[in-house]
Amino acid sequence: xxxxxxxxxxxxxxxxxxxxxxxxxxxxxxxxxxxxxxxxxxxxxxxxxxxxxxxxxxxxxxxxxxxxxxxxxxxxxxxxxxxxxxxxxxxxxxxxxxxxxxxxxxxxxxxxxxxxxxxxxxxxxxxxxxxxxxxxxxxxxxxxxxxxxxxxxxxxxxxxxxxxxxxxxxxxxxxxxxxxxxxxxxxxxxxxxxxxxxxxxxxxxxxxxxxxxxxxxxxxxxxxxxxxxxxxxxxxxxxxxxxxxxxxxxxxxxxxxxxxxxxxxxxxxxxxxxxxxxxxxxxxxxxxxxxxxxxxxxxxxxxxxxxxxxxxxxxxxxxxxxxxxxxxxxxxxxxxxxxxxxxxxxxxxxxxxxxxxxxxxxxxxxxxxxxxxxxxxxxxx
Length: 381
Fold this sequence. Notes:
The chain has 381 residues and is α/β, with parallel strands linked by helices. The chain is built from 17 helices and five strands. A five-stranded parallel beta sheet has the order 2-3-4-1-5, with helices on both faces. α6 runs parallel beside α7, α12 runs antiparallel to α13 and α13 runs antiparallel to α17. The relative contact order is 0.11.
């Protein structure tokens, strides 16, 4: 992974280069921002850079030295990954599970560069009904690896993705480690919700915030991988709202949310007052994995915002394309100032119920019936 693989974020890259050049690297850094801003690939690129034997004059890894070659294969012995996973089944081979998942994450990083928690959740096939967590066992296995002697002469680097997923006992164990870190060991935390970290851990991390990437920078990056016109690239960049991930998916024509169909059916049943259809929909959604349900509810809230922008005649503030835009236009007459706040409150309430292990069949039943009550043109009773 190279700095050049991360779109934009020149301020953060410059700071990291200065740390390395001056040999004054904080032993624990926290990269904060959304996945689409490049937090994870930048952390991995920095891990490679500080171990590169011949950095380029432009301030990037050379890509040809033995260390860079090992990073290219994601097999550098002094590069360690810590990440959330699902609790193992009873009797599972923990070592085999960890090796498989680490190799899977490394492969995904090599292929996609930018990853989201949803990508990782979907990659762990057959386990999505559970919650992604970092257990104390995960942390203890990492500490066992750190107890071994470093192989190279550079830094041993731990990239910890989603540290906010740590359980309390794991967080306390990690706190002791970063208070007294092993020699020449760097901890690169990557979080989209740093406020969920223990305050005692947060206070010991040097934070680097990565903001959403400017539209112009995204459009320029798309020019490097496509021959689309400047107008098309800017339209895509505008719809992506600072997300490199979404911009690339839109460019490839793959950006069709898996939850669009669920939302279309919900609104269709609600509009027709088809209560049997709504009950069947509720039962189906309740069977989805917890993480999938969270992503779906967040997607519904996002789409509602876009619909309202179209309703108030502000298409310039609607960031949709393709099928999503067509659906939002069709529904926008029914989303107005009288009901938009109630919809958002319901989405938030249902999300909260999900996190508190409520009976989601009942929760979605109430949720869907409310849609039938609220979906009506402005001025009708």
